[in-house]
Amino acid sequence: PKSFFFTRHGESMFNVQGKIGGDANLSPQGHTFATKLPELLAANLGPETRLTVWTSTLKRTMQTAAYLAWPQLQWKQLDELDSGFCDQLTYEEIEEKFPADFSERDQDKFNYRYHGGESYRDLVQRLEPVIMELERHHEPNHAILIVGHQAVLRAIYAYFLNYSLEELPYVKIPLHAVVKLTPKAYGCMEERYTVDV
Ligand code: G3H
């Protein structure tokens, strides 16, 4: 595969409130990130002259990509890990309402499946077509930018960087930073660009 870029959506109102899941709008800071993204990409595209933007179907990724003047594709497979009954709760609320689940997840975060939702293992399976498409992507001078979610980008990053399944749910994917991965015969070259919002 060729290089590809990825970033999380800009900070959302749910990020501000510490809630997971949902389909919130960007916060003012998240919106600032979205407005600065085109310039950051233009400055760091390198030899790539074309860009295709992949988002999820959730508002926060589409709002983050809204100022990018490149073709965009929405993937349902890129939607955030489905937290089922815990959707729209804070971690404190989850611990209070579902203490057994909270500790079960802590014991085995990769395999824990939210009631009515997904596990990281489910997510990895759901992302297979996305990863296949990234693997098949060989067009010269054409880069892909994924505007995604924390859990989803952990899975993609862990796949290309050969992290173990146990490590995958703990990979740190910061907000307001763009990562460029260039797969090599062995391993991956990584560049990071952060944005002040
Ligand atoms: O629910 C989605 C979060 O971005 C992932 O966070 O798996 O560390 O709880 P977590």
Automatic annotation (TrEMBL):
Q: Which BP terms from GO are recorded?
A: fructose 2,6-bisphosphate metabolic process; fructose metabolic process
Q: Name one GO molecular function term.
A: fructose-2,6-bisphosphate 2-phosphatase activity
UniProt keyword ATP-binding present: yes
The family this protein is said to belong to = In the C-terminal section; belongs to the phosphoglycerate mutase family.
User: Which parts of the sequence bind substrate?
Assistant: R8, H9, G10, E11, S12, M13, F14, N15, R60
Organism, by scientific name, is Geranomyces variabilis
The active-site annotation reads H9 (tele-phosphohistidine intermediate), E96 (proton donor/acceptor)
- How is this protein annotated for GO cellular component? cytosol
Q: Where are the transmembrane segments?
A: none
**Secretion signal: which residues?**
none
Alphabetical UniProt keywords: ATP-binding, Hydrolase, Nucleotide-binding
Under what name is this protein listed?
A: fructose-2,6-bisphosphate 2-phosphatase
Task: Name the source's superkingdom.
Answer: Eukaryota
